[in-house]
Amino acid sequence: MSKDSTYGLKKSLGYFSLTNIVVGDMIGAGIFTTSGLLLAQLHDPKLLLLLWVIGGLIALCGALSYSELGAKFPRAGGEYAFLSELFSPLAGFLSGWVSFFVGFTA
After folding, report:
1. Using an 8 Å Cβ cutoff, are 95 and 80 in contact?
2. How confident is the model at residue 46 (pLDDT cuts 50, 70, 90)?
């Protein structure tokens, strides 16, 4: 099969769109419920904001790690591609099913 440029994934999303997808995926809908529960426990909005900033910095470290993995293994497949290359295809396969049943339902 020849290497034709008409096949494969096309890069059509810009930085703004990709940034918003990542932010929406990391924050999710939990910010609307968790903030109220935390504020009831903490009784200090400034402390609550500080905790969200610290959590955001921790999430940023995870996002930067995934960006490094994406640069190291530039192909479609996400975690499956990373784990299949680093460990074995079985690890990538199992990771996909664990993410489906545990991660995506959270």
Report:
1. yes
2. very high
